[in-house]
Amino acid sequence: MTTLLLVFAAVLLLAVLLSSLAHRTILSTAVLFLAAGFVIGDGVTGLVPLRPDDPVVATLAELALFAVLFTDGMRVGWADLRSAWRLPGRALGWGLPLTLAITALLAHYVAGLPWPEALLIGAILAPTDPVFAAALVGNDRVPPRLRHLLNVESGVNDGLALPFVVVFLAIAAGSDDLHVTELGLELALGIAIGIVVPWAALRLERTRLFAVSAQYEALNAVAIGLLVLALGKATHGNLFLAAFAAGITVATCGERQRESFEHFGELIAEILKLAALLVFGALISPALLGDIGWNGWVFAVLALVAARPIAIWISFLRSGLGTREQAAAMWFGPKGFASVVYGLLVLNAAIPASDEIFHLVAVTIAVSILAHSSTDIVVARWFDDEREVPAWYGTARKVHRRIHRTDRRTPGDDAGDQPVKP
């Protein structure tokens, strides 16, 4: 454990020192942690000989996924979804289940998995991660609706895919009807905890008896998250649905708390994500890669270049999305952190095909991290030429400038759209 902490601290410092270069080039901090984990793992140097059943693996995966789903939920309050739901709604309502189904077909017919396990791996690989498309999402020259689409989709689909993962995992484990009923109660209890606890906490804060100082404002959401986590564990409610529901509730009912927690919460989630990637890399060994077989590698490639592109192409038919924007959305479906943790959950579940599923998931995620994190800068440059920006984007910018000028008028200025000079 001490060696693992030492390696993580050293790699984290290196990632911080290289972060500015990573934002400008194809270098990725995620790849750095994945590669470092692979090197220190039992299959290479044996510096940190982690096994899937080690307590640190399950604990870190649980905490990291809880933090990520909590912060993801905070990005997508109901007001955000209502204000611009059309394109993200297509990606989530059609794209997510279609990606799951196409990936399951590939897992069954290419990798040779039985249907329950094929559907499970489809659910594991359906979510996307915005981290590996950071250059695209953060580029101001990229049309805002495309950036919004990728942000909302990746923020919501982790939580939406989770029930499918849980249900298909139960089916693959051979659960009977009684267990499925208990599973439904577990999911419902998790959602209830995620809604009631933040709502009650935010209501208490608005009473005359309580007031949060500015110094502790960011800790308000942390306290809510920890209480949700503790209650979920005590009542055996689903922790991850509780986290996602809690994040959405805070974003919907407490805009001030959401804003104060945003930066702090993202840093916590990022640290846990990078630690999980390090552990995930340590579980990948040369022997594991050698056991995949040609059909496993073919599945991994097709899961990236066929499943997501076909699903998004079907989902955005007659949507009005430009060809270049649609091509970027089709390609940028990187398999990221949620899939890593779902794969670890399957490995710890010890179902008959858990090792094979983990091997396929591990290879697909590794290939995705390498491919997507090294092409985001390249694709973002497609939009650097303003002549290539769709006409609607220029109109939108003019409207934005007009609104901005209107907001800057002096109270007595009613001379149309003339801006006030600074």
From TrEMBL:
Is-annotated flag, keyword Membrane?
yes
* Keyword hit for Magnesium: no
The source's domain of life comes to Bacteria
Cite a GO CC annotation: plasma membrane
Segments forming domain Cation/H+ exchanger transmembrane: 14-374
Q: One MF term in GO for this entry?
A: antiporter activity
Q: Disordered: where is this region?
A: 403-422
Going by the UniProt record, its keywords in alphabetical order are: Antiport, Cell membrane, Ion transport, Membrane, Transmembrane, Transmembrane helix, Transport
- Gene Ontology biological process terms, A to Z: proton transmembrane transport
Q: Where is this protein chiefly located?
A: membrane
Compartment(s): Cell membrane
Q: How does it sit in the membrane?
A: Multi-pass membrane protein
Its name, as the record gives it, is Sodium:proton antiporter
**Can you name the source organism?**
Actinomadura craniellae
